[in-house]
Amino acid sequence: MTETRTETDSLGPVEVPASALYGAQTTRAVANFPISGLRASPFLISALAMIKQAAAEANQSLGLITPEQGSAIQQVAQEIIDGRHHDHFVVDVFQAGAGVSLHMNANEVIANRAGQILGAPLGDYKKVHPNDHVNYGQSTNDVFPTAMRLSALLALEDLDPVLGDLAGSFAAKAAEFKDILKSGRTHMQDAVPITLGQEFAAYAVAIRKCHQHIARTAEDLHALGLGGSAVGTGLNTHPDYRERAIANLSRISGLELRPAEDLRYAMQSNAAMANISAALRTLALEVIRISNDLRLLSSGPNTGFNEIHLPSLQPGSSIMPGKVNPVLPELAAMVGFQVIGNDTATAYAVQAGQLELNVMMPAMAHNTLQSITILTTMLRQLDQHCIRGITANQDRCAFYAGSTIALATALNPYIGYAKAAVLVKESVASGRSIVDLAREQKLLTEDQISEILDPKNMTEPHAGKS
Fold first, then answer.
1. Which of 122, 145, 207, 233 has the most other CB atoms within 10 Å of its CB?
2. What would the pLDDT profile of 315-349 be if each residue is shown by its tens digit?
3. Are 27 and 15 a contacting pair, CB within 8 Å?
4. Model pTM score
């Protein structure tokens, strides 16, 4: 049997594990919400600790808590920021509305550990109380929205360099493949020639555009409603608390944070979370699309396109010897699907607020932070273990570049669309190339054939008929 201590909250006595830094309200939440087995993101835990540190510093400077209490609270908050005590944050991600349970989990852990520092036993809140001191001048209703936004910004700091590296890797492959001709494809059918480098350059632009969009969208996350207290009116807060707490939080987090222009808006609306989630969704859509291209371009080796080779990472079949699958592009698509689902859940949560508060914030926080985390780790793997190791099958690319019936498109200015269409039909029926048929039917001179039907000349704007 686990040893316990008895604590009492407003509902009565509760048996709490003797060594737990959390207390009665957290213990009730653990019993009430055994839902997923998932715990809060480390980014959200750190964000809560940063807020508590910033608030304690502000309240101490205003004489609202004692220097002894303020110092102990700040010390514990820093320990949590440094990665300690995270195993005492035990509330499921699916929990009481507004995040009350996780917020009280943080208040209790900090109060108990601060009490330890000041010589009090666990569960004795006379020196530092979870509500009266750690949570002085605060409410779940302003702390949790602030923590949600701050944690997203902290998580995005990890995604940012990964996106820059991935765009750079695609750009490097674009330069490496710039002279490799291949057939373009539209509607999954032959199209005019393109270079492999041009395809990869477009992938680089797609990732760079998503990167820029996420950075722009994240700007709204910097505006915080901390200091709004219960309904955005600042009840039980000192007039100078809000500005001091957010200034402290900016210094502690290393981020340029600012007070929201309207505290009621910051509490009622979570549009900022909807927007960043949607930007992550857009990134996921682009990554899914690109990963599907990589799977197609590497398909084969004998019965597919086989225009590029992906690094061989693991055996691909339990029954077919020698089979190697495009595992990282497959992974990328599956992670993308999860991000899309997370965005849908976030969107539903964002619209579900009523009047002064949206109580669905735990779902927003969990889904958005999971999206950032899995995109960060997946894209790092995709970049380092797939994109950087891609090689081109130049012979296969050249064969397709010379074989595409869409070469006839270049003949339009010279013989007209209708005659070019007849030539295409004959090429398909006979299996002979457009070049051979144009030469045989004397549709062009040899010099014209060399210039007009050179696939390389079709990959850039051309002056046309002269």
1. 145
2. 999 999 999 999 999 999 999 999 999 999 999 99
3. yes
4. 0.95
